[in-house]
């Protein structure tokens, strides 16, 4: 069996078109698709000054239904790690 390597960039979700192969009508071929990991753009990080000016610090300070913001944040992190649904009952 002969192997031919063709690299392409997917231009439409779920579709790859391969042409000009040295194959003839009726010839059996096997196609194996190897996916390269997606290259994720690096995230921009905030400086301390930008974080202080962003409004994120103290975001929950006036929320009456959140009595313990540390417990609320901890529970959100735990739920995110488990990939579960987020419930909003944090009055505890």
What does this entry show, briefly?
The chain has 92 residues and is mainly α. 22% of the residues lie in helices and 0% in strands.
Architecture overview:
It is a single chain. By secondary structure, the chain is mainly alpha-helical. Helices cover 22% and strands 0% of the residues. It is built from two helices and no strands. It has helices at 48-53, 69-82. The longest helix is centred in the last third of the chain and has 14 residues, at 69-82. The N and C termini lie far apart (66 Å). The mean pLDDT is 83.
**Taking Cα atoms only, what radius of gyration do you get, to the nearest Å?**
26 Å
Count of helix runs: 2
Computed structural class = mainly alpha
Quote the distance from N terminus to C terminus: 66 Å
- How would you describe the shape? elongated
List its salient traits.
92 residues; 2 helices; single chain; 22% helix; mainly alpha; elongated
Topology of this structure?
Elements: H1 48-53, H2 69-82
